[in-house]
Write a structure and sequence with these properties.
two-stranded antiparallel sheet; mainly alpha; 8 strands; 36% helix; two-stranded parallel sheet; single chain
């Protein structure tokens, strides 16, 4: 019964489970008032009903230290496939639904050249024959001065035409054997440096850093197409590392 989302159930099973899930959620939270309480309530509801689940482990990437996720599909990939240039605003505006799938995986033919849009799905499937279905954005990924943390993404990234996009990590980002964790108050505290042990952790962190950055930049680019003037093209685009943005001293924290 211990499973996590995404949940795929038949309509008749949902009719049984959903009411119990709603009933158990506040009771579980009363005893465990923390994150994931609603997920534990789901498991309790399924156990209460004897509704066993078939667990699929390869659909998601999240925790670089876990063995029961979809890492077996990515551990053998060339990291240069995931790390490279992000699309410009112009390219996002011109991309089709078919070609945009290439950006959303972060894969291009040659990371050292401007990305080329692909519309041939056969070519895409040959380039990336099989990948997990979901990236879980709840973790923090850090390598050297490169960072991805969802709570540190500036809101202005999606609402300001002049805010810099996130700088894509370089192809050799996996070579960093340490991480820098921004403090709660960068006006008064320094970043915390920690060593990273294990080549696999470095490679997986690099993979997630590059893909999460590409996803967020693509989402920001699509959001800006609705608010930014057409004249605001790729010539106006700047980039900044999320770590550097997180280390800025805000006036209210001085």
């Amino acid at each position: 019964y211990p499973v996590g989302p995404p949940y795929l159930l038949h309509y008749n099973d949902w009719k049984l489970l959903a009411p119990k899930w709603s009933e158990f959620a506040p009771r579980v939270y009363a005893q465990y008032p923390y994150l994931l309480a609603e997920m534990y309530a789901y498991c309790c509801a399924a156990a209460h009903l004897g509704l066993k689940h078939f667990t699929v482990n390869h659909m998601m990437l999240s925790n670089v230290h876990m063995s029961d996720e979809g890492w077996q599909l990515t551990d053998s990939l060339d990291i240069s496939l995931a790390c490279g240039s992000s699309p410009s605003l112009d390219q996002v505006q011109k991309s089709t639904s078919a070609s945009s799938s290439l950006w959303l995986t972060g894969y291009h033919y040659n990371h050292s050249k401007p990305p080329t849009l692909l519309t041939d799905q056969t070519t895409l499937s040959q380039l990336v024959p099989r990948l997990p279905n979901f990236l879980h954005f709840c973790q923090n990924y850090r390598l050297g001065p490169w960072l991805f943390a969802k709570r540190r993404i500036p809101h202005d990234l999606f609402t300001s035409c002049d805010h810099p996009f996130l700088m894509p990590p370089p192809p050799n980002v996996f070579s960093f054997d340490f991480e820098l964790q921004p403090p709660g108050n960068p006006c008064k505290q320094q970043a915390l440096r920690k060593s990273i042990t294990g080549k696999r952790t470095q490679m997986r962190s690099a993979f997630m850093l590059c893909l999460t950055t590409a996803h967020v930049n693509a989402a920001a680019g699509r959001a800006r197409t609705a608010i930014c003037p057409v004249s605001h093209s790729s010539a106006n685009i700047t980039h900044a590392r999320l770590f550097d943005l997180s280390m800025r001293c805000a006036a209210k924290k001085r």
